[in-house]
Amino acid sequence: MLVNYDCQSPPKGEPLKAKPGHENARGVRFAQERSAETRKRILEAAREVFSEKGYEKTSVAEIISRAGIGHGTFWLYFRNKEDLLRHMLREMVSELESLDWYRENHLDEITVETVQDLEGIIRGVMEVFRRYSHIHPLVIRASVESEEFRRDLDELNLPFARILEAKLREHLERGLCRDLDPEIVSRIILAMMEFTTVQWVNGSLDCDLEKLAHNLSVIIFHTLRQEKSE
User: Fold this and answer.
1) Residue 64 has what pLDDT?
2) Do 159 and 189 share a domain, yes or no?
3) Rounded mean pLDDT, 29-56
4) C-alpha–C-alpha distance, residues 159 and 97, integer Å
5) Confidence at 59, pLDDT banded by 50, 70, 90
C-alpha cells in the first residue's frame, strides 16, 4: 500500500521528514537574510560606538545595547571585541578590492602617466581609509602585539603597495622615474596617505577630499617624475 506522508504520519519508528518544496527554501533564505542583517546591525553599532568612545573604552555591552539585540546573540557572531575589529578590517579590505584597479592581475590596465591618473587612485583609497578611520589606527597598534592582526594589516596594505611598486619599476625602466628603491618608495607613499587621511578626518586639515588627493598626487608625481633626456 502506498503511504502519502503529506497527509499521514510516517510508520512507527521512521523519522518525520521535512516536506520539500518552496516553503522550505523560503525559510532557509529568510534565516540567512536575517542572520546577515543581524551581523550588519552589530557591525554598524560597533562603528558608531568606536567612533564616539574609541575602541579601548567601548564595551561589548554597549555595542549590544546600540545594536538592539539580545546579549547572547552577539556571541553567536563574534568571539570577542577583537574578533569584531578583525571582521571590520576585512570589510575594509573587501571595499578596497571592489575598486577596479585594486588587484595585481589588473596591473596592465592601470595607467599612471599623469597627475590625474595618480589622483584617481589616491582618492579612491583615501575615501575607504576615511570611512574606516575609527578602526585603522587601532589595527595598526594591534598589529604590533598580534601576529594575526599583522597578517590582516598586510592583507590590507600589501596589494596597494605592490601595485605602486610595480608601476614605479615600470617607470624606472622607461627612464621616467628617479633612481629610487620602488619597494621603499611605495611604502612611504602609503604611509603618507594614511597619515594625511587621519589628519584630515581629525579636522587638522580643513579641505575636501578632492583638494587633498590633488595636492598629495602633485607632490608625489613631481617628486618622483624624471623627464627623459633628449
Assistant:
1) 95
2) yes
3) 81
4) 9
5) very high
Q: What is the pLDDT of residues 86-124, one digit of tens each?
A: 888 888 777 777 766 555 445 455 667 788 888 888 888
Are 70 and 89 contained in the same domain?
A: no
Q: What DSSP letter does each residue of the chain carry, written as one string?
A: ----TTTSPPPTTSPPPPPPSHHHHHHHHHHHHHHHHHHHHHHHHHHHHHHHH-TTT--HHHHHHHHT--HHHHHHH-SSHHHHHHHHHHHHHHHHHTSTT-SGGGGGG---SSHHHHHHHHHHHHHHHHHTTTTHHHHHHHHHH-HHHHHHHHHHHHHHHHHHHHHHHHHHHTT-B-S--HHHHHHHHHHHHHHHHHHHHTTSS-S-HHHHHHHHHHHHHHHHB-PPP-
The total domain count for the chain is 2
Q: Which of 176, 197, 177 has the alpha carbon at shortest distance from 186?
A: 177
Whole domain around residue 178: which residue ranges? 82-224
Answer whether residue 71 is part of any domain.
yes
